[in-house]
TrEMBL record, chains A, B:
EC number per UniProt: 6.1.1.15
Residue span of region Disordered: 1-53, 507-528
Domain of life: Eukaryota
Compositionally biased spans, kind Low complexity: 1-10
This protein's name: proline--tRNA ligase
Enzyme class: ligase
SUPFAM superfamilies referenced in this protein's UniProt entry, alphabetically: C-terminal domain of ProRS, Class II aaRS ABD-related, Class II aaRS and biotin synthetases
Length: 567, 567
């Protein structure tokens, strides 16, 4: 599939290079000066001796989210210690503990739910043979250009080169044929957590597009289309749950058009997100019904229980959710101070920082105060709130505030002698900056409430932004201005692939003012592509009457289709 | 490193081929006859209509563990549905849900404990560059012959081929250099769960030696040798705990000799297991102190906190445990009926099977009885016992018994009208075959107790076998006869690599009667290699006096060293 992003490729590459160089330069300078660029917890610098103010500037994000969204994003994931660029091989990223905590939280949530559905875990080899791959024609065509081929072992050439899996349909389905002998073996539902490799020629971006990424891939087989279809939606709803309930990210549920569906599949359902900063749509996760295409190619049949002697091909699904979800969350919630994490997936939900412990204080008073801080810390931990306390010597409270803001901790708790005198703890919300105090007697209940409020408010804010920028349009001339105003659009469409291609061309490079690419450079504006046909269809489309909105299309509209510039 | 197993390679290959062909043949026959070879839960065959007896024979293991250990093992892992051979590419195996449950139990147990130690999770790319790899000379020499090289992406040659990680030292340590700037960044402790690829030329065996395997790899950096050394042992004790507490497998803790240590490391500690059926030792898991070798090559230094201005190289460890543990467990506990699982890692701990429900019973009585079965099932589940109930129609109880025995379920519970009349449930232990009854009123407590007893008895039995076959020897002439009698030996040794090599030669192919290879074929007997220097040293070695036991060595003995034929 062609991608509108190709247009801005060279500009994008330049931008990434520039961002990387800037980051490398800052880091080198910092290493020599022993100053923390990453805001490392135990980094040597940033002490008062060096002048707190100067350090504060260095650890922060150097560009604003509004001015240069792409560089902002790259700095956030790097400086919040989520990602490290793998300089040895381009297009690969290292997932650091801050990332793995989020991924493991998602994994646990999803695993529990699919286990309850009867999905079992498996682990297939990472390599696939040319022969298996070639069984399904559209499938191999979809993935062939991005396959990484192992051709040598040690210093010997392999007789038959093997490819690293880009997805495991062709790895697994020969065994579905072997294991499924009777309708009693159905449904067969297997899932695996692994990494896959797609050697993208396109621009890579941390989390969103990488040559290797972590994901789960579920592969199931059912007796009927109906049973398969029910599961497709059940899984899609779990994907929506990960976005909405864990990551506080709203999504639109829908079906991909023929042009955008999975290579070799029957139909694809999707949850589609939206990035307010550049008005782009982004595919969140997909749950595919493969129909009987693969079961025919891989010979997966059972005897029809209702018609003895007759063999039928099974109905198959595959569904996957990757670490991309984390990138979407960062893009939506982050701000100019850095990462903003929804409390449910934050490893540290609240950070407790002693303040007002001045040099003038007596050693005794200081000890007494820090003892009280310790008590508060243990009270919170005992209540099951994921809390840390920052007792680092030699750092100003202001430096610590910035450091934890950069890392996105949802709630900051401050405790100084003045708070102690009033039996309160002061707090600051990461998402809104709102400040207040909590009586110590109510600390654990109020903190838990605040965290839930933050989670909900973050979702509501993102949902409001999405709702306001999902525009139903019935006049073609309004389309490009709507895109330029950072909207995605919902239009009546014929759903014919050729028409989609033409729509992409018609909406590309037409605005006078060039648009912001995800890489933060001015470039010719990108054409829009179809994101999904939302399940929740607006009113107003009359079948057999309403026409496809494309000015060059003479067909009738089939459904409302969501289009947008996209990742 | 050379391996004594090479001797028997061609015989072994033939044996594997024969076993595979036999399995394939049986399976093909079964598919055509619609009979379950794998004892599949919902397989079509095995019904009374086909004659229970005939089916019972087919689903079972066709060779005895004593007669042909290697074929027995391959049948068990295949028929108990733990493993499927990946026929597309040789040397690779599919891990099925029965395996993944065990691996996930181990993973959870270990993960909780390393998290408590402060180890954080990470995920590095699966590829490494030639340049990184070459930094540590012995390391690259150790792994180069087994590296899988990606040389092409799509149809384009890569400018710089990349290798799939065989282990991640060379992938990770460039970033340790970047992230560790101060002694305050120490200890840095990261772990990842992934798969690695070592393109073995040797015979592969499910779990024990595969070209790709799942494992965890921990990589840590410390300020001092002492701190690194403490962690090495702490992790080794966790590895021993996985074997002893979860898998009911006894191990000997010790240190590898220079000849057998990790390529590029400083010293290697190990837990060593023992397979009674062929008297072979098997390496269980290793925890390495890498010393400062890698930190020098990768430039990982900090300023010495006790000597300002002076830079010191950090001390590093790496430690890994793989799915091999599962193979060791199968080999030790399995019997001629199939798998025998220790209760703590069994997905199904007890299987409840209604019996005595005959055709003569009235529909009403039958319903009443099955209702009671259901009640028992829920009582057990509610008590947290992992239980399933086998209500499959059309299978004889005898067929079901065999099926669950094949799959290793630790405890079978039978409930028939006679049991109901006496308010008891009958049981049969998988490990000993012991039968008895449990009053229904005491069901949950007694079942829980029985499961713990089974766990303990399985361990004790294996421990007794290991203890009886770990022979201290001080007379060289006793060595080969001891090996032939399926022992591993503990001898005074100089620990010099050249002497170890010679000992291997001296003990190879010398017995009149050829020994049993792991592949179940008669072949020239394998020489012994050093397994470890046990931490628990026997009495009787006088330093400066006791001589190395090798008849061709004139050196003094350093320590008691455990040698054996081995995997």
């Amino acid at each position: 599939m062609a991608d509108a992003q190709d247009q801005s490729k060279s500009a994008a590459k330049k931008a990434e290079k520039a961002a990387k160089m800037a980051a490398a330069k800052a880091e080198k300078a910092a290493k020599h000066a022993a100053l923390p660029v990453h805001g490392g917890k135990k980094a040597d610098g940033g002490k008062k001796a060096d002048g707190g103010k100067k350090t504060d500037e260095i650890i922060g994000i150097t560009v604003s989210k509004t001015d240069n969204f792409s560089q902002w994003y790259q700095e956030v994931v790097l400086k919040a210690e989520m990602i490290e660029y793998y300089n040895e091989i381009s297009g690969f990223f290292i997932m650091r503990p801050a990332t793995m905590h989020i991924w493991n939280t998602i994994r646990k949530w999803f695993q529990e739910r699919i286990e309850a559905m009867g999905v079992e875990e498996t682990s297939f080899p990472m390599f696939l043979s040319q022969k298996s791959l070639e069984k399904e024609k559209s499938h191999v065509e979809g993935f062939a250009p991005e396959l990484a081929w192992v051709t040598k072992a040690g210093d010997k050439d392999l007789e038959f080169p093997v490819a690293v899996r880009p997805t495991s349909e062709a790895v697994m389905y020969p065994y579905y044929s072997k294991w499924i002998r009777s309708h009693r073996d159905l449904p067969l539902r297997l899932n695996q957590w692994n990494s896959v490799v797609r050697w993208e020629a396109k621009q890579t971006t941390p989390f969103l597009r990488a040559r290797e990424f972590l994901w789960q891939e579920g592969h199931t087989a059912h007796l009927t289309e109906k049973l398969a279809g029910e599961e497709v939606l059940e899984i899609l709803e779990l994907y929506a749950g990960i976005y909405e309930q864990l990551l506080a990210v709203p999504v639109v549920r829908g079906r991909k058009t023929e042009a955008e569906k999975f290579a070799g599949g029957y139909y694809t359902t999707t949850v589609e997100g939206y990035i307010p900063s550049n008005g782009r749509g982004i595919q969140g996760a997909t749950s595919h019904c493969l129909g009987q295409n693969f079961s025919k190619m891989f010979d997966i049949t059972v005897e029809d229980p209702n018609d003895k002697g007759k063999h039928v091909n099974v109905w198959q699904n595959s569904w996957g959710l990757s670490t991309r979800v984390i990138g979407v969350m960062v893009m939506i919630h982050g701000d100019d101070k850095g990462l903003v994490l929804p409390p449910r997936i934050a490893k540290i939900q609240s950070i407790l920082i002693p303040v007002g412990v001045t040099a003038k204080m007596s050693a005794e008073d200081k000890e007494k105060h820090l003892k009280k801080v310790d008590e508060l810390f243990f009270t919170l931990k005992k209540a099951g709130i994921r809390t840390d306390v920052d007792l680092r010597d030699g750092y100003t409270p202001a430096w610590k505030f910035n450091d934890w803001e950069l890392k996105g901790v949802p709630l900051r708790l401050e405790f100084g002698p003045k708070d102690a005198a009033k039996d309160v703890v002061s707090y600051a919300r990461r998402d809104t900056g709102e400040k207040g105090t909590i009586p110590i007697a109510e600390l654990t209940t109020k903190v838990a409430e605040l965290l839930e409020t933050i989670q909900q408010d973050m979702y509501n804010k993102a949902e409001a932004a999405y709702a306001a920028h999902r525009i139903r349009i019935t006049n073609w001339d309004d389309v490009v201005p709507a895109l330029d105003a950072k909207n995605v659009v919902i239009i009546p469409h014929c759903l014919v692939p050729a028409c989609e291609d033409r729509v992409k061309e018609l909406t590309a490079g037409r605005s006078d003012e060039s648009a912001d690419t995800p890489e933060g450079q001015k470039a010719p504006s990108m054409g829009m592509k179809s994101l999904c046909v939302p399940f929740d269809q607006p009113e107003g489309l009359v079948k057999g009457e309403t026409r496809c909105l494309s000015p060059e299309c003479s067909r009738l509209a089939e459904q409302w289709c969501m289009f947008g510039r996209s990742y």
